[in-house]
């Protein structure tokens, strides 16, 4: 990957982002089995509904903080905020054994800085050319999948033979290594000329207010369509991840070994999809069509989960899970393509904030639907929940049917996303035709107005608005 660096300073590389993501999510992947145990012990009644509420608080805080973190990283640099996000995301891990109540409280509060992906994607955007960016985003997303290929299996093995305490200890050590790696070895990616030389607070309340950012997003049709697409597609995905593995065990009657194998298969296929296949698809059919293909695969996958009751159908749907994993890196590439250099953190922060909101709403929604149809996902009655649900709805996986409908709406919205921002095209065209600095760039016969400080004249988020 092409990197830009100042003389005498260690060069920032995509490899740095990949290692940070791998270590963070490998640590959390180890806790897959212990987390289910702690959930059931701490909240014996309505386990996943309570989990949804905890994740809901975390997601809402992430939604509130993501624009501010992204905007500040555009000004002060990525490294310091990458350190904060990794630290606070991993901070709850040791408390899983120290105090479960503190553990869940810290998970909820950690949402303020749990926006690692937005900072990582901005970091990658700083050091890659646009033609390489989609491949780099795919590599980062594939690393997330790779971290989950073996970590749940390792965590399950350690938990079974040595107890949950050792698993938590190993995860804590890996989290500390990740924090140390960011602090000592990760270089700053934002060029010096784009950062402030003094530490003030140059971000206005309007930039920090996520609802103000949403209003700004509404001024740019492209960003608005992308944000709605992300919300409608990631809402069911977040809910699915919160309950799916226990659903496989209790309803489809997968063994623990089969679940670990399923996770490994999906992880390996996702790596292939997000590295080799993603870059090929973007080059051949474009970013927008790649997003649509990923959404279509997600619909088919959710329909298999909703109506399927045989184990082979779950395994077949796993291949579609891998194919649908290309959606988010393709969306990130589409957003980055339209965003100016000084807006990468803001835009990626907004997308991550919406995903954070879904991370809260999705588990709560899925848990509520399971609860509504008398399907409590606990170890006490593995088959009763399935029988009750089928008797009341005729559908074994009703929440997944809701998810398929939500993603279908996302497809209908994504169809209207333009392949390229019209205003970006206009600016590029004007720049090519301009022969000196005083030449006015015109659109439809009228000069482009110079932005003023009036709130109504703020440029849309994906234009070259100054900070």
TrEMBL record:
<feature type="transmembrane region" description="Helical">
    <location>
        <begin position="166"/>
        <end position="186"/>
    </location>
</feature>
<feature type="transmembrane region" description="Helical">
    <location>
        <begin position="314"/>
        <end position="335"/>
    </location>
</feature>
<feature type="transmembrane region" description="Helical">
    <location>
        <begin position="356"/>
        <end position="374"/>
    </location>
</feature>
<comment type="similarity">
    <text>Belongs to the major facilitator superfamily.</text>
</comment>
<dbReference type="InterPro" id="IPR036259">
    <property type="entry name" value="MFS_trans_sf"/>
</dbReference>
<dbReference type="InterPro" id="IPR005829">
    <property type="entry name" value="Sugar_transporter_CS"/>
</dbReference>
<dbReference type="InterPro" id="IPR001958">
    <property type="entry name" value="Tet-R_TetA/multi-R_MdtG-like"/>
</dbReference>
<dbReference type="GO" id="GO:0022857">
    <property type="term" value="F:transmembrane transporter activity"/>
</dbReference>
<dbReference type="GO" id="GO:0016020">
    <property type="term" value="C:membrane"/>
</dbReference>
<feature type="transmembrane region" description="Helical">
    <location>
        <begin position="217"/>
        <end position="235"/>
    </location>
</feature>
<feature type="transmembrane region" description="Helical">
    <location>
        <begin position="12"/>
        <end position="32"/>
    </location>
</feature>
<feature type="transmembrane region" description="Helical">
    <location>
        <begin position="80"/>
        <end position="96"/>
    </location>
</feature>
<dbReference type="InterPro" id="IPR011701">
    <property type="entry name" value="MFS"/>
</dbReference>
<feature type="transmembrane region" description="Helical">
    <location>
        <begin position="102"/>
        <end position="124"/>
    </location>
</feature>
<keyword id="KW-0813">Transport</keyword>
<protein>
    <submittedName>
        <fullName>Transcript variant X1</fullName>
    </submittedName>
</protein>
<dbReference type="InterPro" id="IPR020846">
    <property type="entry name" value="MFS_dom"/>
</dbReference>
<keyword id="KW-1133">Transmembrane helix</keyword>
<feature type="transmembrane region" description="Helical">
    <location>
        <begin position="290"/>
        <end position="308"/>
    </location>
</feature>
<keyword id="KW-0812">Transmembrane</keyword>
<keyword id="KW-0472">Membrane</keyword>
<dbReference type="Pfam" id="PF07690">
    <property type="entry name" value="MFS_1"/>
</dbReference>
<feature type="transmembrane region" description="Helical">
    <location>
        <begin position="394"/>
        <end position="417"/>
    </location>
</feature>
<feature type="compositionally biased region" description="Polar residues">
    <location>
        <begin position="436"/>
        <end position="453"/>
    </location>
</feature>
<feature type="transmembrane region" description="Helical">
    <location>
        <begin position="255"/>
        <end position="278"/>
    </location>
</feature>
<feature type="transmembrane region" description="Helical">
    <location>
        <begin position="52"/>
        <end position="73"/>
    </location>
</feature>
<feature type="transmembrane region" description="Helical">
    <location>
        <begin position="136"/>
        <end position="154"/>
    </location>
</feature>
<feature type="domain" description="Major facilitator superfamily (MFS) profile">
    <location>
        <begin position="13"/>
        <end position="422"/>
    </location>
</feature>
<feature type="region of interest" description="Disordered">
    <location>
        <begin position="436"/>
        <end position="467"/>
    </location>
</feature>
């Amino acid at each position: 990957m092409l990197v830009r660096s100042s003389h005498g300073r260690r060069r920032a590389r995509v490899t740095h982002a990949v290692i940070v993501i791998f270590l963070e999510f490998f640590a959390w992947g180890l806790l897959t089995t212990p987390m289910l145990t702690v959930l059931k012990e701490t909240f014996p009644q309505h386990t996943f509904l309570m989990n949804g509420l905890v994740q809901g608080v975390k997601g809402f805080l992430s939604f509130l903080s993501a624009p501010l973190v992204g905007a500040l990283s555009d000004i002060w640099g990525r490294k310091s905020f990458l350190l904060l996000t990794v630290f606070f995301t991993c901070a709850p891990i040791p408390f899983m054994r120290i105090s479960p109540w503190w553990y869940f409280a810290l998970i909820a509060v950690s949402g303020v800085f749990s926006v690692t992906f937005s900072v990582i994607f901005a970091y990658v955007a700083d050091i890659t050319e646009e033609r390489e960016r989609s491949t780099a985003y795919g590599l980062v997303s594939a690393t997330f999948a790779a971290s989950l290929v073996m970590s749940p299996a390792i965590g399950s093995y350690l938990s079974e033979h040595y107890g949950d305490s050792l698993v938590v200890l190993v995860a804590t050590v890996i989290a500390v290594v990740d924090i140390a790696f960011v602090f000592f070895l990760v270089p700053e990616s934002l060029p010096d000329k784009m950062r402030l030389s003094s530490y003030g607070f140059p971000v206005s309340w309007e930039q920090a207010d996520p609802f103000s950012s949403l209003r700004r997003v509404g001024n740019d049709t492209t960003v608005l369509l992308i944000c709605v697409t992300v919300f409608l597609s990631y809402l069911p995905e977040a809910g699915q991840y919160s309950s799916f593995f226990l659903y496989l065990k209790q309803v489809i009657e997968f063994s623990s070994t089969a679940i670990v194998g399923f996770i490994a298969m999906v992880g390996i296929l996702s790596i292939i999809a997000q590295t080799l296949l993603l870059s090929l698809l973007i080059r051949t059919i474009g970013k927008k069509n790649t997003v649509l293909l990923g959404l279509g695969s997600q619909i088919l996958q959710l329909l298999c989960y909703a109506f399927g009751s045989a184990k082979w159908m779950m395994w077949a749907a796993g291949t579609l899970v891998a194919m649908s994993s290309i959606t988010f890196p393709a969306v990130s590439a589409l957003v980055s393509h339209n965003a100016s250099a000084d807006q990468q953190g803001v835009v990626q922060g907004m997308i991550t904030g919406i995903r954070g909101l879904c991370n809260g709403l999705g588990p709560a929604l899925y848990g509520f639907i399971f609860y509504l149809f008398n399907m409590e996902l606990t170890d006490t009655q593995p088959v009763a929940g399935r029988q009750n649900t089928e008797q009341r709805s005729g559908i074994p996986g009703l929440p997944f049917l809701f998810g398929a409908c939500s993603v279908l709406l996302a497809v209908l919205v994504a169809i209207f996303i333009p392949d390229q921002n019209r205003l970006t095209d206009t600016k590029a065209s004007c720049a090519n035709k301009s022969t000196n600095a005083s030449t006015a760039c015109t659109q439809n016969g009228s000069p482009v107005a110079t932005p003023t400080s009036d709130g109504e004249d703020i440029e849309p988020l994906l234009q070259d608005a100054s900070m």
